[in-house]
Amino acid sequence: MELLIPTRPDLLMEVKDILAQGEDPSKLAALIKRDVALYTILLSVVNSPLYRRECLIESVEQAIALLGIKRVATLIETVALRTSLDLGGTWERFWEVAAEVAVLCYKLSKELNFSNSDFAYSLGMMHDIGTGVMRETYSDYEKKLAKAHSFNAVATFKAERTHFGIDRYSIAGELAERWFMPIELSSALRSQPHAQAALMGRAEVDEHVIAANALLILAKDISHEYEAYWNFDSLDSMGGLVQKSIEYFGVDQNQYVDMKEDMIHQLAKEVC
Questions:
Q1: Which of 19, 106, 110, 250 is deepest in the core (most CB within 10 A)?
Q2: Range of the domain at 257
Q3: Is 73 within 8 Å of 15 (Cβ atoms)?
Q4: Residue 100 resides in a domain
């Protein structure tokens, strides 16, 4: 069965051309305004908790002036991905969770001195995109993967390979490649199971892949706790992957619990 992986929209090639020609804000704004869905979703994103300002951003020109043309171009990639997959209202919750993890990756990148915050945001948005593709492709996906734990990438990888001969992580990496996203992003997405194994001392992968996935694990952990209505894990029950990710960034467990609580409170305020 052929996977339903969307091709890169012509719009993104035009964005790339604009950036190559000297980063003209007016040309980028005009391009965005041609696509009503992109225009609407982009303004929704820039007014989200991640980028929220004291004043509402009401135009694309404002968004570009405040965020910069390169950051807006990064946002266009994730917005275009969402619209091209067209998962519909059924998958609205999927995108809500992806956006939440993206916000947390971005915020954690600032706290943990991760080198590229825009990369961190894209990583969060893209990390589980392969699940959407697989669910659209395989009608029995939900039934066969009912017992798979998505937080454990190794177990999920094995389950998906057993049932379908492909996995969500390879799909995410391939999609990023097809859309000409940074090779570091594609590599981090594709290598999620291997990075988790490396964090547990059972494999070796490139350092940037480990760092990206350690950040992602912490973002997913905080997102999970937020969705669980503030039911924090105790230090004794904190998962091994989370512990290893904390150690990777040189943060002790008490610092991480404080960081997690603070970010959950931020998320709660932002949705009120």
A1: 106
A2: 88-271
A3: yes
A4: yes
What secondary structure letter does DSSP report for 25? H
**What whole-number distance in Å separates Cα of residue 218 and Cα of residue 216?**
5
Question: Distances from the Cα of 113 to the Cαs of 22, 106, 138, 209, 250, in angstroms?
Answer: 30, 11, 40, 16, 11
CB–CB of 105/216 below 8 Å?
A: yes
Q: What is the count of structural domains for the chain?
A: 2
Q: Which of 46, 65, 86 is the last residue of a domain?
A: 86
pLDDT by residue (tens digit) across 155-208? Answer: 899 999 999 999 999 999 998 888 888 899 999 999 999 999 999 999 899 999
- Cα–Cα distance measured from residue 91 to residue 94, given in angstroms and rounded to the nearest whole number: 5
266: which 2 tokens? 């931020």
What confidence tens digit (pLDDT) does each residue in 32-49 have?
A: 888 777 788 778 777 876
Instruction: Answer yes or no: are the C-beta atoms of 6 and 85 closer than 8 Å.
Output: yes
Which residues, 6+ apart, have CB-to-CB distance to 23 below 8 Å?
69, 70
**Tokens 């069965």 sit at which residue?**
1
> Which amino acid type is present at position 141?
Y
Of 59, 86, 113, which residue is a domain's last?
86
Q: Cα separation of 98 and 143, whole Å?
A: 22
For the CA atoms of 40, 42, 48, 51, the dihedral, rounded to the nearest 10 degrees, stands at -150
Half-sphere exposure of 64 toward its Cβ, with a 13 Å CA cutoff? 19
**Shared domain check, 154 and 121:** yes
Q: Report the predicted TM-score, pTM, of the whole model to 2 decimal places.
A: 0.81
What is the C-alpha radius of gyration for the chain, rounded to an integer number of angstroms?
Answer: 19
Which residues touch 25 (CB under 8 Å, ≥6 apart)?
A: 61, 64, 65, 69
Q: From residue 158, give the alpha-carbon distance in Å to each of 5, 129, 154, 176, 195.
A: 21, 18, 6, 22, 15
